[in-house]
Amino acid sequence: MTQTVDERPTPTTAPALEVREGRKSFGAVHALRGVDITVRAGEVTALVGDNGAGKSTMIKCIAGIFPFDSGKVLVNGAPASIHGPGQASAAGIEVVYQDLALCDNLDIVHNMFLGREMKKGLRLNETAMETKAADVLASLSVRTVRSIRQQVASLSGGQRQTVAIARAVLWNSKIVILDEPTAALGVAQTEQVLQLVRRLADAGLAVLLISHNMNDVFEVADSINVLYLGQTAAQVRTSDSTRAEVIELITSGAPSTGEAVQPRRDRPATSTTTNGSRPE
How far apart are CA 203 and CA 16, in angstroms? Predict the structure, then answer.
């Protein structure tokens, strides 16, 4: 297994999302030191790495929370200027964070339209929102929700994750980023969420999945991008890789037969804070 980014023959269409040489620092802390990733439409790309590798920083940069200090972001092959969440949404990028950002006291419909409510005059257009919410859930083959007027507080962990994902695709998004969607879920709920993740890709969306669970990664991902100390160690096809090889990349930054990733001359050798910790 070699340390190259996505070794497939170049397709005729540009990737849905590319990051090239992305860098981000917080004062003296170099969180991202030249990251590269390719996310294709119709595929699930897993982003993996140890704690402190830079996964959270990377998705926040893509989402416009922390703009990259340097590097290029391309959406469908065209350069994209993303300096805020609004610009990310306009580019078709939606993120489902680990906390889901759902309101327990609201029903499914109002959670899906939270902050983007449809109106008819001065009033909410409840009928239109309910119809659109139902259509999106049906398009994702979601059958675990009893009623779209259920309060979110009454939903299971898997159902809550489903609502958050459905909200992300409600606005014609093309790229969906999922941050640890199966964390704290039981076996049955995890399988339901993974099936939904796969359906997103099968529907033509580009899915970027952040996960620590290698079983989940190898079940649904088409390719795996490994971060190591703020650098891209490799992006490999799942079908061409083993768990042992990916774990070796996560822990050492190199496959078992290769050499460790070396910092570029313009990068510091380590990425640490004053107390020795690294940003996630």
Answer: 14
